[in-house]
Amino acid sequence: MSDPYKILGISRDATDDEVKKAYRQLSRKYHPDANVNNPDKDKAEEMFKLVQQAYQQVMYERQHPYSSSGFGTSGYGRPQGSSRPGSSPYSSQQSSGQTWQDEDGTTYTYYGNFEDFSEFWNEFFSSFGFGTQGAYTQDNSEEAIHLRAAASYINHGMFQEALNVLDAMEERSAQWYYYSAAANSGIGNDAVALEHAQQAVSMEPDNQIFQNMLQQIQSGSKWYSSRQQSYGAPVDAGGQCMRICATYICLNALCNICCCGNGRSC
Amino acid sequence: MFGYVVINEPELRIREFDLYRSYYCGLCEELHEHYGRFGQLTLNYDTAFLGLLLTCLYEPEDETFEKASCIAHPFSKRPRRRNKYTQYAAHVTILLSWYSMRDNWEDEQQIRGLAMSGILHGGFKRAKELYPEKAQVIADCLERLHTMEKQEVSPDQAGACFGDLMAELFAFRHDEWEEPLRRMGYYLGKFIYLLDAYDDLEDDAVSGSFNPLLPVRARMQENGADFNGYMRTLLTMLMASCTRAFEILPIVKNVDILRNILYAGVWTKFEEIYAKRTGACPDDNVSQHQDPA
C-alpha cells in the first residue's frame, strides 16, 4: 500500500484524534450506502476498503513503533491457525497455536498473544537473549539446566512449555521468578507475571535486569496513567454520589432484595 | 451486575452528562418495552456503557429522541435516546442477569435469584433466540468459572472467564472492529472481575467462599509486600490494555464521555476500597478540586 497518511489526507504529525476524524470523514464519503446511486460506486467501494486499510495501518504503526514485522503479518488480525471465531486469543488458557518450522525441521508452536510477542521481544530482548547471563551458562546443576531450558523456550515464544518446565522445579530462586514473570507475561497472565516480577525484584533489589522486567511488564501503564489526569483521576472516593438517577439506588436496593446480590459470577 | 463502569461525574460537562443520561434512560426504556417492569430492574451502568460505546462507534442514523416522563420521574420530561445498540444492550442485560441469577441460586441458594429468574424466564428465552451465540458463550464462561471455583486457580484464569464473556458481548458483529472490541471487552471484563474479587476479599475470607485473590494476599502478607499497591498496579495494567484497544476504534463524537469512564470513572469503586483498606485519603492528591483560598 502506498503512504497510508496520504490516503487519509493527513500529515504524519496528526494526532490520533485527527487521524480518526479523517478516517470518519472519508469512510462516510465512500461508504457503499452513501454511493448507491453513484455511477462510480465500484471505485467508491475500492476507496472505502483502501481508507479502512490505511487507517488500520496508521493506528497499528502508532501502537507498535518498534515492530519490524508490519501490519498484516501480526497485529489486529487473528494469528493464523487460531481457533474458531468467538474464542479469545487473549485468554490465558492455551488456545490453538501458530506453528512454524525451524531450518533443522523442528516444529514449534506458539500460543501466546501475538501482538505482545513481537513488541515484548523487539523492545526488550533484542540486545541480549534470555539465558545468556554469565553465571548460569557454566553451571550444570539440575536447576540450571531447567532454567536454561525455560529460557530457551521463552526465546522461541513457547511460553506454555517454559511454564511447564518452571512449574516442575522445586527451587524458587529470584531467577526462577524472573523467568516465570516473562513466560506468564508472554501468555497474558498479567496477575501472576506482576506478582512474580515483583518477587524477583524484592529478592534481588540491586538486579537491574529484574527492575527492567518489572517496568517492561507494566509498559502500557505509564501511557494510561498520563492520560488519567485529564479525566479527573484519582477519583474522589468519598464524595461520589451517583445522582444520575436517585431511583436507580432504590431500584438497586430492590434488586438486592429480589435478585443478584453480590455473586462473584454476576 | 457490578455497576463499576461509571462516569466520573464532576469532570463531565453538563452537555456530556445529559447525553450520557439520555442513553441510560434509553436503555431503561428498551428494557421496559421488551421485558416489562421486572426487566427494568436489571438496568445497570455496565451494559449502558456498552450501548453507548457501540453507538459512538457506529453512529447510527436511525435513532429516536424523545422527551418523556417515566415511572421513576413522573413529573419531569427527560430526554432519552434509543437505537439498535441500546436495544442490543437491553437484550444483553437480560441474558447476563438471568444467568447470574441462576448462578446465585445454585451457588448460594438465594431464593430471590430463583424467583427473579423465573419471572424473567420468558424474556430470557426471547433474548436467547435473538442472540443464541452470545447466550451460549455466557453460559459456557460461567460454567468454566464454576469449575474453577472448586480448585485453586490464579486470578488470571478466573478473570479470563469473565474476560472472554465480555469480549463476546463487545463483539457486536463480525466486522473490521470486532478484534479491538473483543480485546477491549476482554480486558475490561478481567478488570471488573478482579475489582469485584478485591471488593469481596474480606467477606470471602470470613465465609470461605472462593476468591482467587485470597492466596495472593496471603503470600504477600507473609512476604511483607504491599498487596493493595499490587492491586492498583495490576488493575492499571488491565485498563491500559483495554484502552489501547479502545483507542484503535475511530470514535470521534462523544469520545470524551467514554474516556471519562475508561480513564477515571472505572476507578471510583477501587479508590473507595483502597482508601478503606489503607486508611489513605485520595483527596490529599487531588489539589485541582480544592477551591482557591
Describe the structure.
- The complex is a heterodimer of chains A (266) and B (293).
- Chain A is mainly α and 266 residues long.
- Chain A is 54% helix and 3% strand.
- A two-stranded antiparallel sheet of chain A has the order 1-2.
- In chain A, a hairpin with a 5-residue loop joins strand 1 (98-101) and strand 2.
- The longest helix of chain A is centred in the N-terminal third of the chain and has 23 residues, at 41-63.
- Chain A is elongated and about 75 Å long.
- Chain B is mostly helical and 293 residues long.
- Chain B contains 13 helices and 2 strands, in the order ααββααααααααααα.
- Chain B has helices at 14-40, 45-58, 84-108, 111-119, 121-130, 132-148, 155-170, 178-199, 201-207, 213-223, 227-246, 255-264, 268-278, and strands at 64-68, 78-82.
- A two-stranded antiparallel ribbon of chain B has the order 1-2.
- The radius of gyration of chain B is 20 Å and the shape is globular.
Question: What percentage of amino acids of chain B are in beta strands?
Answer: under 5%
Report the C-alpha radius of gyration of chain B, rounded. Answer: 20 Å
SSE arrangement of chain A, N to C? HHHEEHHHHHHHHH
Order of strands in the sheet with most strands of chain B: 1-2
The amount of helix of chain A comes to 40-55%
- What's the overall average pLDDT of chain B, rounded? 91
Topology overview:
The complex is a heterodimer of chains A (266) and B (293).
Chain A: H1 4-8, H2 16-30, H3 41-63, E1 98-101, E2 107-110, H4 114-125, H5 135-138, H6 142-155, H7 159-168, H8 174-187, H9 190-203, H10 208-217, H11 219-228, H12 246-258
Antiparallel strand pairs in A: 1-2
Helix pairs in contact in A: 2-3, 6-7, 6-8, 7-8, 8-9, 9-10
Chain B: H1 14-40, H2 45-58, E1 64-68, E2 78-82, H3 84-108, H4 111-119, H5 121-130, H6 132-148, H7 155-170, H8 178-199, H9 201-207, H10 213-223, H11 227-246, H12 255-264, H13 268-278
Antiparallel strand pairs in B: 1-2
Helix pairs in contact in B: 1-2, 1-3, 2-3, 3-4, 3-5, 3-6, 4-5, 5-6, 6-7, 7-8, 8-11
